[in-house]
Amino acid sequence: MQAHDILPAGASTAQFNGMEVRKGTIAAFLANARCWLNPDSTTAERAQAETDMAQALPAMAAIGVFDVLLPRDPHLAAWLAAKQQPCACTK
Fold it and tell me: pLDDT tens string for the chain (91 positions)?
């Protein structure tokens, strides 16, 4: 499977387990995680990154990202474990 099989050219969203997920969601989550983990980020930058990551979690769960991938950073792993709820698609 290739990217265009999931999201055809010109499309900006796709449905995953009943949730509309916007193109760029995973990349934005990764960028926010890097900011959140960066010791040079300001408190405000970290807070915004955390808010944005939390808002993306339902989409990330619908896609199944954390069913396959786990963060290597223990702080991010602990944050995710505290925030995550079971995906409706696995029930």
Answer: 998 899 899 999 989 999 999 999 999 999 999 999 999 999 999 999 999 999 999 999 999 999 999 999 999 999 999 987 554 444 3
pTM of this prediction exceeds 0.70: yes
Q: How many CB atoms lie within 10 A of CB 62?
A: 19
If you write DSSP's letter for every residue of 22-34 in order, what string do you get? Answer: ETTHHHHHHHHHH
Residue ranges per domain, the chain?
A: 3-90
